[in-house]
Amino acid sequence: MAKKTSISWTDHTFNPWIGCTKVSEECKYCYAETLASSYPAIRTEWGKGKPRRPASENSWKDPIRWNKSAKREGIRRKVFCASMADVFDPEAPEGHRARLFELIRKTPNLDWLLLTKRPEFIREQLEEIGVWDLLPLPNVWVGFTAGNQENFDKRWPVIREIPAVVRFCSYEPALGPIILPPDTVGQLDWLICGGETHPQKYMGRKMEPAWAQEIRNQCLQKRVSFFFKQWGNWIPESGHQEWYGKTSATFSEKVELLDGMQWKQFPVGKVNRK
Ligand code: SF4
Fold first, then answer.
1. What percentage of the chain's residues is helix, strand, coil (to nearest 5)?
2. CA 205 to centroid of ligand 1, rounded, Å
3. How many CB atoms lie within 10 A of CB 34?
4. 71 in ligand 1 pocket by Cβ < 6 Å?
5. Which of 25, 114, 129, 223 is close enough to 98 for a disulfide, judged by CB 3.0 to 4.6 Å?
6. Which atom of ligand 1 is nearest to the CA of 85?
């Protein structure tokens, strides 16, 4: 349940468990649910009351290994946690969140990118395991997903109050335009923008080019590092959008370009920010 990853904005992914419950519009075509239903080795049913699948003991050793090589090479590595779950899921397997934060403490050469759609549970859950008063942790970046303005306005005020060296937003899948509010200046460090992709033959919801251009311009104005991940299954082409599908060579050439160029900025952390 841990691996070198194809996700362009991280070096590794780690899943302390697999499984989740859909909570908002962004989850509608959850790729993790599709993957977990397609492969017997990780088969997990999604939903409230369905047991989450804990990571194997071997998987828990992977970050220790990555930490050692990061230290040896003198290069920090990013770990996205979790790509097949939500770290702040109230139905996480007993003791696993505490074990995760213990692992985070033991791996100071890794930057842990905790991305959630449930920021409202962060404080309570971290208090429960005795971590809240230790924030900000030097190697934890706290992120939230917002595919539209409604979810941005709901989740950002919560994330804004979490002490963190980096706060970030995953605008993926982008489902509507987002205007960044004034209080993101100096507080939101990084935004990742992307259209919807899906592991099965599914068309995906379109990201309008104007949404991507507009959020990039706002990020540049507000000094928020901007990472354009990919268009998703629909790419702008001669004034309209075409569906390419993941197997097309043309798709792989153009999928990461916004206005003809790549945008792969990363944030500079703010140590000790409360
Ligand atoms: S929070 Fe993430 S893992 Fe959970 S259902 Fe939504 S998209 Fe899937």
1. 30, 20, 45
2. 16
3. 14
4. no
5. 129
6. 3
Report how far residue 215's alpha carbon sits from residue 172's, in angstroms, rounded to the nearest whole number: 12
Token pair 């990461």 is found at 256
Choose among 100, 15, 76, 94: nearest CA to 267.
Answer: 76
Question: What three-state secondary structure class fits 157?
Answer: helix
Residue nearest to atom 8 of ligand 1 (CA): 30
Cβ 177 vs Cβ 149: under 8 Å: yes
Each residue of 118-128: pLDDT tens digit?
Answer: 999 999 999 99
Residue 98 is part of a domain; what is its CATH number?
3.20.20
Ligand 1 pocket residue status of 32, Cβ below 6 Å? yes
Question: Are 188 and 168 contacting, i.e. CB atoms less than 8 angstroms apart?
Answer: yes
Domain assignment present for 265: no
Question: Counting atoms of ligand 1 from 1, which one is nearest the CA of 83?
Answer: 3
In a domain, 63, yes or no: yes
Please count the structural domains in the chain: 1
Q: What is the DSSP letter of 163?
A: -
Burial category of 152 from C-beta neighbours within 10 Å (exposed 0-12, middle 13-18, buried 19 and up): buried
Domain residues for the domain of 164 are: 2-254
Short-list 12, 136, 97, 20, CA closest to 62: 12
For residue 274, is pLDDT > 60? no
Is 267 part of any domain? Answer: no
pLDDT tens-digit map of 18-31: 999 999 999 999 99
